[in-house]
Amino acid sequence: MDSTGFWIFLITTCVIPGMNGQSVQMDDGRWGYIGSKVDLRCRFINSSPPVKISQVTWQKLVNGTKQNVAIANPSLGVSVAPPFRDRVTFKNGAVRKRTPSLEDTTITFSTLRLSDESSYICEYTTFPAGNRENTVNLTVYVRPTTQISLSTPTLVAHSSNLKTPVATCTCANGKPAGTIRWETRVPGEVTNREYRNSDGTFTVQSEYVLVPSKDTHKEMLTCVTSYNDEVFTDSVTLDIQYEPDVVVDGYDGNWYLNRENVQLSCQADANPTVSLYQWRLVNGSIPSNAEIRDNVLTLKGPITYDLQGTYVCDATNSIGTRSGSVEVSIIEKPLPQIATGDVISVVALLLAAGVLMGITITVLVLKIRSKKGSSSNDSPSTKLSQTIRKRPADDIQL
Ligand SMILES: *[C@@H]1O[C@H](CO)[C@@H](O)[C@H](O)[C@H]1NC(C)=O
Ligand SMILES: *[C@@H]1O[C@H](CO)[C@@H](O)[C@H](O)[C@H]1NC(C)=O
Ligand SMILES: *[C@@H]1O[C@H](CO)[C@@H](O)[C@H](O)[C@H]1NC(C)=O
């Protein structure tokens, strides 16, 4: 093979692929969001010597049949078919010139529609080589809209363990379909549904199901939707209504005869808040001089044995009535009081005694040491006599 032959071989086999030296180049696939702009690339790779391009035709494959989109003809000019006329143009200005160059017949969709999703054929009619064509698939994406909502504005806690959908998250009209997951501290179940809409988009719906209870009141549910690489989050807070949960405070175990102004307080955890508090004394009656204000019962006194018994507070909200109670015993004499003040003074006294003892011992020890220290300057005989004399103190030090 001489050098010219080698170059022809190289050009025909590597630089110019395809049969007979011409080919139509397109992308492997194209995609765009609805409403966006997208180019469908088409380039004719000519041979040397070049063949003559008689016409370029863009077609859309619809149900297996070809529908014309646009035509570029060197002598007749450019024509875009009516359904595409206001949205499709040839990108390269040279295509539309009086003496056009039709090597690059890329078309641009200005605002994509869902119905544009299809296979598109770019066909070159040449002389004398005949037809060359290639195909590209155009995919249209639709970003879904997401929404989270409470299934009902308020839920009522049931005594039966009835599971109820409490929140719904919707990821609507996406193409491809979005995905939904939940983030919350509240345990529950998730039911997902996916619908295919008539326009080819998908709607995904996810419900969070749980047993509404006092414990789940004010808990937050977050719905996380993912679409392609995008993530959206949205949250709702549960509003669970429940009956009052009641306790009676205020009885200190020291209701002695003739004590005055003792109080009981009815503490209720309820949603909605308690609208009515009622007090009663089991097998007895609340004395007429008792004062009831909101949730507090004040027995002005003086206390008598008649006031002994079980005091019940009935708390009512729109969901129901629940009771709390306390059993009160009346004693003859006040309990020996160990008020906190007394406890503190006792502790202080003990501490003071301890400190005093510590100081005394330290002083003693120091005295002995200083005497020892000064005696070291004395004659050995005196030192010995002093050491002997002070032995009892040394024992204390040990
Ligand atoms: C393609 O086929 C579907 C059903 O097979 C039909 O509903 C639709 O109208 C057809 N489209 C065209 C453009 O003929
Ligand atoms: C284009 O779409 C058609 C029909 O949907 C499919 O058969 C073909 O494999 C696709 N081509 C490419 C390159 O993805
Ligand atoms: C309260 O009265 C009821 C009947 O009215 C009785 O059965 C019950 O034993 C009484 N309780 C007390 C603590 O006296």
Number of strands: 28
Helix content: 10-25%
CATH architecture of the largest domain: Sandwich
CATH names the topology of the largest domain as Immunoglobulin-like
- Rg over CA atoms, rounded to whole Å, is 48 Å
Strands across the major sheet, in which order? Answer: 2-11-10-5-6-7
Tell me, rounded to a whole number, the average pLDDT.
Answer: 85
Tell me, briefly, the overall form. elongated
How large is the share of residues in beta strands?
35-45%
**What's the domain count?**
3
Low-confidence stretches: 4-19, 373-398
- CATH superfamily descriptor of the largest domain: Immunoglobulins
Subcellular location: Cell junction, Adherens junction; Cell membrane
Protein name: Nectin cell adhesion molecule 1a isoform X2
Transmembrane segments: 343-366
Keywords: Cell adhesion, Cell junction, Cell membrane, Disulfide bond, Glycoprotein, Membrane, Repeat, Signal, Transmembrane, Transmembrane helix
Give a structural overview.
There is one protein chain. The chain has three domains: 22-141, Immunoglobulins (Immunoglobulin-like), CATH 2.60.40; 145-238, Sandwich (Immunoglobulin-like), CATH 2.60.40.10; 242-328, Immunoglobulin-like (Sandwich), CATH 2.60.40. It has helices at 3-15, 340-375, 380-389, 391-397; strands at 23-25, 29-33, 38-40, 43-45, 52-62, 65-73, 77-80, 88-90, 107-109, 118-127, 130-141, 145-150, 155-156, 164-174, 179-184, 189-196, 202-210, 220-227, 230-237, 240-249, 255-256, 262-271, 276-281, 291-293, 296-299, 309-316, 321-328, 330-331. It is α+β, with helices and mostly antiparallel strands. The longest helix has 36 residues, at 340-375. The termini are far apart. Bound molecules: 2-acetamido-2-deoxy-beta-D-glucopyranose (3 copies). One 2-acetamido-2-deoxy-beta-D-glucopyranose binds at residues 28-29, 119, 137. One 2-acetamido-2-deoxy-beta-D-glucopyranose is lined by residues 28-29, 119, 137. Residues 1-21 form the signal peptide. Cis- and trans-homodimer. Can form trans-heterodimers. InterPro entries: CD80_C2-set, Ig-like_dom, Ig-like_dom_sf, Ig-like_fold, Ig_sub, Ig_V-set, Nectin/Nectin-like. It is found in: Cell junction, Adherens junction; Cell membrane.
